[in-house]
Amino acid sequence: MSAPHPGAASPSIACVDSHAHLAMKSLACDIPGILARAAASGITDVLTAATSLEDAPATIEIASSDAPLRIWAAVGFHPHEAKRWQEGEEERLAPWLRRERVVALGEIGLDYHYDLSPREAQRAVLRRQVCLARRLGLPIIVHSRKSASDVAVILEEEGARDHGGVIHCFTEDAAFARRCLDLGFYVSFSGIVTFRTAGDLRGVVKIVPEDRLLVETDSPYLAPMPHRGERNEPARAAVVLQAVAAIRGENPSRLGETIRRNFHRFIRRSEERPRS
Ligand SMILES: [Zn+2]
Ligand SMILES: [Zn+2]
Known about the structure:
38% helix, 16% strand, 10 helices
């Protein structure tokens, strides 16, 4: 009864959470409550991303369950997991990517901050997955942390422009944002935009054209201020929307509608009626 209701304090504005990890233990144990709070906060769609083949089944199961909002899934090898990629992994990934609720390949990318997989392996696995996405005609969800120039080169060389994608939880600089926008990519911002030290990032929030903008929580990580350090959940996409709208000097309701349209264009699915 005393569970917190993130984001529910203000009147709800329709928006989406373009990136969360609902299959992670801290969230998977509380899915009905999490989804109810998200719906009460105005969230109409959540995209839940797997990080390897291991959490793909749980991710798709959650996306296929009855819910008060629409849940979409993505499957891919996160850069942290690149060291576990085996020869022929594409053929194991492909059947998951053809499943009903799966709308993107991700999350994939490079992470030179944590370096949990050797960089050479990260780059090779990113290239292979960009190729696979092109073969399957799927948009990609890209993670880039302190790796902007290598990510940009790989996306450009592997023809990512053809099938598009999003740079999720954007933390790189404006030059990288412009390079990705030139490739036709979307740029998604998380609760990091509310952190005191994120002044440069707030500058990038202002230069992304309205029709390429997305917001996300990256739950269970990156709770926005004043909840930093707590478990995050999709309801707080409403907080991120408010912050992004304030930075850009825009009306949050109108921006929320634009972001919802962007999201459905990104996943190439028109808006459906909720399934329940
Ligand atoms: Zn990420
Ligand atoms: Zn993520």
